[in-house]
């Protein structure tokens, strides 16, 4: 069940809110837990047991750590269990396939279905266990409340990676004002529109131009490949940030304040700046639980490079059990090292944004294709090698038919909307007429966005969500 579906919006989330708001205060967490477990079980009931097991392991060993001289041992055991389960479900097939390629063993590789959201909730529970060991949070005495934290349907299957310290107090003590509900609804409607209208349109263009397979790549013109990959670049940001917008909005409606996960990454002027803005919860996780414990930048140059290698290798591995994700992580490592030791201020300020977008663009091509032969075909085809020429009328038709969606998608990746909102708010404080118009606009906009999104979903069965695979 994805957020950008009519089933979720009207058959799950709306009834959930009604029951939640009418439930007694002492029963609200129970309602939220039941809803979260139903939501997760919808994608595979048997994997709910895995989520409950990982939560039990974290809860049990966190309690054992309290005032214990063996707290470090308990923390290590808990981390090994959590990472071990993640490795079994996510990486067994990858490692066995590579063994089979090199040494022709085993003869048959078992197919293991990846549980939805395992990468996200495993990292959340890892952060909880380590933070308890560091005495940065107090262990949760009630198992069901920790299960509520790990299974919160707002974010358990695709992030953001919410740390326990962020919601620790709000699990038991949260207050909801009218402004919280209004902001949450507005944020949810923006996310839904971003996904249902813009991201899905970009995805449709990409899949129309590159329907899949090596033949589809060779049959497309160079310009068509460029357009397809630009749309993919737009799609992956709009898709994932939309999910975070909806998660943050739903959390705010009931009093949870999740941290921002994106800060307009496509306006970055360096690769380092991009990673401060993209998937912030993941970047900060690797910083606080891998990079800094390894010594961070307070070590020799060689060890710092080692630390960076470990972080970016793991960043690639986290995204998927495939060589292209590892290459993608190391690709960014190379540019971060270049920026540190060579590029620095050699690029003029007016070209820094262009340079960063080019690096990001080719990074997404690596990210998209797990089949390395297809990856090579796309990279060569973009320059007319192995493609069906440089231009075709079909590409022109697709472009002109979707030009408005593309323009709005590009604008949605910038701060224009936020800047315009701030400008109108500032102007309204000085002019009563503008204040009335602004108030009406601000109140009506979420409902208009919801209506357009619902119409888009009614008329479009194409509704992929990229980050469910992680």
Question: What does this protein structure show overall?
Answer:
The protein is mainly α and 470 residues long. The protein is built from 20 helices and no strands. The chain has helices at 6-22, 28-42, 45-65, 71-103, 118-133, 143-151, 164-172, 178-209, 213-218, 222-253, 271-277, 280-291, 301-319, 323-343, 349-368, 372-381, 393-401, 403-412, 416-428, 432-458.
Write the layout of secondary structure elements.
Blueprint: H1 6-22, H2 28-42, H3 45-65, H4 71-103, H5 118-133, H6 143-151, H7 164-172, H8 178-209, H9 213-218, H10 222-253, H11 271-277, H12 280-291, H13 301-319, H14 323-343, H15 349-368, H16 372-381, H17 393-401, H18 403-412, H19 416-428, H20 432-458
3D shape: globular
Secondary structure: number of strands: 0
Give helix % range.
over 70%
Count of helical regions: 20
Derived from helix and strand composition plus strand pairing, the structural class reads: mainly alpha
What is the arithmetic mean of pLDDT? 93
- Percentage of β-strand residues: under 5%
The multimeric state of the shown protein is single chain
């Amino acid at each position: 069940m994805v957020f950008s579906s009519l089933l979720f919006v009207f058959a799950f989330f709306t009834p959930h809110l009604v029951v939640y708001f009418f439930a007694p205060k002492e029963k609200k967490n129970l309602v939220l837990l039941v809803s979260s477990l139903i939501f997760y079980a919808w994608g595979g009931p048997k994997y709910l047991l895995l989520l409950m097991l990982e939560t039990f392991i974290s809860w049990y060993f966190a309690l054992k750590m309290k005032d214990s001289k063996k707290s470090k041992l308990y923390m290590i055991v808990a981390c090994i269990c959590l990472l071990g389960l993640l490795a079994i479900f996510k990486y067994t097939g990858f490692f066995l396939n590579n063994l089979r390629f090199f040494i022709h063993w085993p003869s048959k590789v078992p197919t293991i279905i990846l549980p939805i959201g395992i990468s996200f909730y495993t990292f959340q529970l890892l952060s909880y266990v380590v933070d308890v060991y560091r005495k940065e949070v107090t262990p949760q005495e009630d198992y069901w409340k920790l299960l509520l934290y790990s299974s919160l349907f707002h974010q358990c299957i695709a992030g953001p990676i919410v740390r326990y310290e962020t919601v620790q107090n709000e699990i038991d003590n949260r207050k909801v004002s009218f402004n919280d509900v209004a902001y949450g609804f507005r944020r949810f409607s923006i996310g839904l529109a971003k996904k249902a209208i813009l991201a899905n349109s970009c995805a449709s263009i990409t899949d129309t131009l590159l329907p899949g397979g090596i033949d589809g790549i060779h049959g497309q013109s160079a310009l068509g490949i460029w357009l397809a990959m630009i749309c993919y670049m737009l799609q992956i940001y709009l898709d994932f940030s939309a999910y975070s917008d909806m998660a943050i909005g739903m959390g705010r409606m009931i009093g949870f304040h999740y941290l921002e996960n994106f800060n307009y990454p496509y306006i970055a002027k360096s690769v380092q700046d991009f990673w401060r803005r993209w998937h912030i919860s993941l970047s900060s996780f690797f910083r606080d639980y891998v990079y800094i414990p390894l010594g961070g930048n307070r070590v020799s140059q060689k060890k710092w490079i080692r630390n960076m290698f470990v972080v970016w290798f793991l960043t690639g591995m986290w995204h998927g059990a495939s060589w292209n994700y590892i290459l993608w992580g190391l690709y960014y490592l190379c540019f971060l090292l270049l920026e540190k030791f060579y590029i620095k201020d050699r690029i003029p300020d007016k070209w820094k944004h262009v340079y960063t977008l080019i690096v990001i663009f080719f990074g997404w091509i690596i990210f998209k294709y797990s089949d390395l032969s297809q990856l090579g075909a796309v990279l060569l085809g973009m320059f007319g090698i192995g493609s069906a020429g440089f231009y075709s009328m079909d590409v022109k038709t697709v472009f002109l038919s979707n030009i408005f969606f593309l323009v709005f998608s590009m604008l949605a990746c910038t701060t224009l909307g936020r800047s315009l909102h701030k400008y109108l708010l500032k102007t309204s404080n000085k002019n009563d007429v503008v204040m009335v118009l602004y108030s009406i606009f601000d109140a009506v906009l979420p409902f208009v966005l919801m209506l357009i999104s619902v119409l888009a979903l009614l008329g479009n069965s194409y509704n992929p969500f990229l980050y469910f695979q992680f």
